[in-house]
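Data's thin. Show one?
=====
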Amino acid sequence: MEPLSVLQSREKSKITRLNRNSKIFKTIIKAIQDKKGENIISLDLRKIPEASADFFIVCEASSTTQVKAICDFIEHEVKEKCDEAPYKHEGRTALQWVLIDYINVVVHVMHPEARNFYKLEEMWSDAESQMHD
């Protein structure tokens, strides 16, 4: 049996960091754009030690129907093009703020009122942000 330190170093070597050119990142952005998501912003969290992901992608949709359509399409496209299923998703009942967790990238599809209330961009203001029109 190998010592724990050897196992931990192996696990770390398998971790790949995402960037804005990563296939999953580009697929998510395009899926949001295709379903007319608005105010799309990505937050680069890689330099923030307490961050749980490499990136947050935040967008808004004007209705609960559109929130659902964007989320469904993101999951479909990522599965189809990247062969990835989300680790978890939350908020599909109320459809005010749906979170889709792909471990290294977390997508937040929000109704405008929820986005204004929670202000994720302000909460993570030390992250480098980029708009995606």
Remarks:
- The beta strands are 38-44, 55-60, 88-90, 97-101, 105-110, 128-131.
- Residues 19-125 form a domain with the Beta Polymerase; domain 2 fold (CATH 3.30.460.10).
